[in-house]
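Subject: Predicted fold for Flavin prenyltransferase PAD1, mitochondrial, 284 residues

User T.R. writes:
Posting the sequence so we have a shared reference for the thread.
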Amino acid sequence: MCLASCAERDSCLGAKGVLRGRCGRGVEVESWEEGSGWTRYRRSCVHTITLSHPYSSFKTVQQRSITAMDRPDYTDNTATEQKVERPEVPRPPPRRKRIIVAMTGATGSILGVKTLLALRRLNVETHLVMSKWAEATLKHETDYTGAAVRALADHAHSHHDMAAPIASGSFRVDGMVVVPCSMKTLAAVAAGHCDDLVARAADVVLKERRRLVLVARECPLSGVHIDNMARVTRSGAVVFPPVMAFYHRPGTVEDLVDHAVGRMLDLFDLETGDFERWNGFQRD
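User M.O. replies:
I've generated the structure tokens; pasting them so everyone works from the same file.
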């Protein structure tokens, strides 16, 4: 059974077309033609409907009644057409930015300490991992203790704890910085040798395509060091040697450290505000 007379259908549609309407109970009805006849219904209803064609050259409105005999596969889906009220699932609050900070046994422990202090001030959630030799170097180079540095972080993990959250890619972080980064740790990351939590966390950050910054602290560099730096760079890491800068006219060692830490955290789109940026030569 056609939904409109042949003359009306041909004048409105031609070979193909669409009729839309709504029944007395508000159920939307739509059917369309493929080829020579009306072949399919999207929705159907047993009530009287008003159908009109949007492309008709004149306003054609027809009263038609669709019954179960009009189509052999008709089933009454009135019950399933009702809108189901579903409770809204509350969205979790936006989390703080989260960065892993790893400290290894290379010289330059104060860089790691200053990084933790800057991230704490910026309200960034930090996960700290310190190797055995990082604590030894820290004690030798500064007045900080391992316990005091761990207290600067939101979470501290043992470098032996391979079941820590940061050892899994499903734990969302915004990046990782290894500061300072020894050549042993650099080699482990380059080779994918996850023998402790520092190397494992770095490996996870790489595979998840997140930001990994290695503050490589060694001088001079051998060909092995340079090859390892090239390998981790090709894998997506950033090698950041803490090179001193003098254009900001540093007056103390702390000025040099603040500049290095600020440039490090630039890579995570974080602004420390602790150093003067280059603005070109200034005329007197």
